[in-house]
Amino acid sequence: MALVAAGVAVLMVLRTNLRDQADLQAEVAAREVAGQLATGVAYDALELPDGDEHPVQVVAGDGVLRGVSEDLEAVTGTGTREVTPGGSASDAREPDEDDDDVPERGEVSPDDTTGGGTATVDGETRDYRFAAVEATTPGGETVTVHAGSPLAMEAVGEVRTAMLIGLPLLLMVVAGVTWLVTRRALRPVEGIRGEMAAITASADLSRRVPEPEARDEIARLARTTNETLAALESAVERQRRFVADASHELRSPIASLRTQLEVGLAHPRLLDVRGAVEDTVRLQQLATDLLLLARLDAGERPPEGSPVDLADLVREEVSQRSGVPVRVAADPVQVSGSRGQLARVLGNLLDNARRHAGTEVTVSLRPEGRWAVLEVADDGAGVPEAERERIFERFVRLDDARSRDEGGAGLGLAIARDVAERHGGTLVVRESRAGGALFALRLPAG
Length: 446
Prior knowledge:
Layout: H1 2-38, E1 56-60, E2 65-68, E3 72-76, E4 107-108, E5 113-121, E6 124-136, E7 142-150, H2 154-202, H3 217-266, H4 273-297, E8 307-309, H5 310-319, E9 326-330, E10 334-336, H6 339-356, E11 361-368, E12 371-378, H7 404-407, H8 412-422, E13 426-431, E14 437-444
Parallel strand pairs: 9-11
Antiparallel strand pairs: 1-2, 1-7, 3-5, 4-6, 5-6, 6-7, 8-10, 11-12, 12-14, 13-14
Helix pairs in contact: 1-2, 3-4, 4-8, 5-6, 6-8
C-alpha cells in the first residue's frame, strides 16, 4: 500500500510539473505574439512560432480569426475552432505619423488564462496547454492571442510503465527481506514459546527458557520469564512443603484425639478428658495458625488508620502469661494496624522466649525516629547464627525444641515475621546481652 501510494504521488507530481511547464511555455509564446501586436506589427507580418511546437491563434473581439500558425489544421480548447484567418490585414496597420488621435503603441494585458485542448498540425493530433493573453493594437483593436505548448505526457506513461514493472519486483524483494529478518528476529520467541509449552505439558517448573545472547527486548523477556519461573517454582515448592507439614502436624493431634475417644467409648472409665481437651486445643490453635497464614499468603493487609497502643498491648499480653518472670520497660508508642495480629506477634515472641529462657524474659519498647522498636530477649541458649533466618520458615523447629508439647508446630515465628512485613515492618533475631536470643520488631510509628 505504501509503495502504491508513493507511485501515485510521484505520477501526480510529475503530471503537475509537466502541466505547469507547458502553461509557462504557452504563456511566453502568447505574450511574445501579443507584444508584436502591441507594437503595431500587421497580422500578416506576425512572426509566429512553429505550429508543431506552439500553435497560435489571434482572435478579434467579434470572433474573427486574425492570424493563425502555419500548418494548423484543427484546434480545440481555444476561443474558436477556425483555422483560416478572416478580415483585413490592415486592421493592425502601423499608425500614421500625422494622425494625432491614434496612439503610438498598444498594450498587453498582465492577466492570462490557461486551459487544455488539442491541436492537429501536419496531420498529427496532440494534447496541448493553451494560454490566452489579450492585447490592444495601436489601432485600438483588442484581440486575444491563444498560444499552445505540447503536453508531454509520454514521460508520465513511461514512468507509469516503469513503476508497473519495478514496483512488484521491489515489493517481492521487500517482502522476502522482511520475512527473513522477522523470522530470524522471532526465532528466540518461538524457542521461548516452545519451552513454555513443554513446561506447561510436563509441569516441570525446574526447566528454564533459552536466553538469547543479544541484549534486546527478547533477551530481557527471556530473563524475566526465567525469573518468573524461579519464583513460581519456589512458591509451588513452598506450598507443597506447607501442605505436607500441615498434614503431618494435623495428623498427630487428630490421631491422638481419636485414640482417646475410641478408648473412652470402649472403656468410659479410662477416658482421659484432660488429654482430649489438650489435643483439641492444640488442634484448634494449629487450625487458627494455618488459617492466618492462608490469609497472609492471599495478600491480606491490616486495616489502615487503626491506632494500636503497643505499650498497653505489651502489658496485656504479659499479664496473661505466668511462669518465667517478664521484666517490662515500655514507653508510650502507637502504631497503625490490626490489634489482633499484633497481639499474635507479641504473644508468639513471648511464648518463644519463655520456652527458652533460663531465669528471666525482658521486654522493651521505645520510639526511634519514625519507628517503634519492640525487643523481646531471654537468657537462654540463644539461636546459632547459621539458623537465625531458618527459624522464620514454616514448620521449622530447632533440635532442642522438637517436642510438640513444648515446641509447638513451628509456625509462631513464621506468622510473626509475615505479620510484621504486612504492617510495613521487620522482625530479626540477634544475640541478647545475657547470651540468649533477642527478637527485634520494628514497625512504622503511627
